[in-house]
Amino acid sequence: MILIGKTIQLRNILIKDSKFIATIRKKKSVSKYLNNPPTDINHQIKWTRENIKNKGTRDFIILNKKRKKIGTIALNDIDFKKRSAEWGRWICLGNSFQSIESFLLLLKYSFYNLKLKNIYSLTNIKNNKVLNFQIRSGGKYCGTIKNKYLMRGKKIHAVKYTFNKKSYLKLKKKIVKAFNFNFQ
Amino acid sequence: MSNSINEICKILKVSKKKLIKLKRKTCEEWDSLAHLEVMFIVEKNSKKRISINKLEKLNKGADIINLIK
Question: How far from A104 is each of A61, A64, A107, A178, B55, CA to CA, in Å?
């Protein structure tokens, strides 16, 4: 499946993406907030294979217009009864437009294709840049989960933010209005 | 110009004095959405159309101030 935007595309992950995923998740700037950075390529291939089979997960590769891989984004723990899912694994090495559009495409897919009511994120409490992004994007604060992650032997709290269709449309409108940039 | 600088300071949550030394890499408030908001203000204040590539490279407070002047 491919979701097409103006500056990027999202396509389902494939086993052959494992090397790319492992490489970006090992980047110093990225891995400092990951609770389980890949140890090696075989570990990543195993993880990718399991996630492709998992019906409660949708992992995407972010491609630029030249179809070069520039990142990852995902939905996991999809609960069709509660109509909710967690979003994350968001790593985008592209520009700001591409980052925002990858997020908007994921929201669109969640609310219009999967018909979810809300999606939430659980962000490392120390990852201020991502936390600020969620506040600025219209995410609703839903509390802090204590000792959610174990990172390098330390327990880390996670902050929960939720997004719904209304916040998606508001964010999209904000970007379109500011830049006359017709996001998909 | 002053209004634009004030708007940018508000987005990035810094004082005017600190803006000049600010770098995107080290500023936690300067996320991708904040960057788009800053770029919008820069473009609004510039008489020329600035390319996305050039706007994307505006990663320092000093460069932003120079472009708005």
Answer: 14, 15, 5, 15, 21
- ipTM for the assembly: 0.72
- Predicted local distance difference test score (pLDDT) of residue A180: 64
Separation CA B29–CA A130 (nearest Å):
9
Query: Helix H segments across chain A?
Result: 18-26, 28-31, 41-53, 96-108, 128-136, 165-179
CA nearest to A127 within chain B: B28
| Number of domains chain B is built from | 1
Q: Are B67 and B43 in contact (CB under 8 A)?
A: no
- What's residue A179's pLDDT? 66
CATH code, domain carrying B34: 1.10.1200.10
Q: Which of residues 123-182 of A touch B (CB under 8 A)?
A: 128-130, 132-133, 136-137, 175, 178-179
Q: How many CB pairs below 8 Å do chains A and B form together?
A: 41
SS3 A7: coil
Q: What is the pLDDT of residues B5-45, one digit of tens each?
A: 999 999 999 998 899 999 998 898 898 888 888 888 888 88
Domain of residue B15, residue span: 2-68
User: Longest C-alpha distance within chain A, in Å?
Assistant: 47
The CATH topology of domain A2-179 is: Aminopeptidase (3.40.630)
Q: Mean pLDDT across the stretch A121-138? A: 90
Confidence of residue A183 (pLDDT cuts 50, 70, 90): low
> Does B31 contact A133 at a Cβ distance shorter than 8 Å?
yes
Nearest to B36 among A129, A132, A178 (CB): A178
Ordered by start, the domain boundaries in chain A are: 2-179
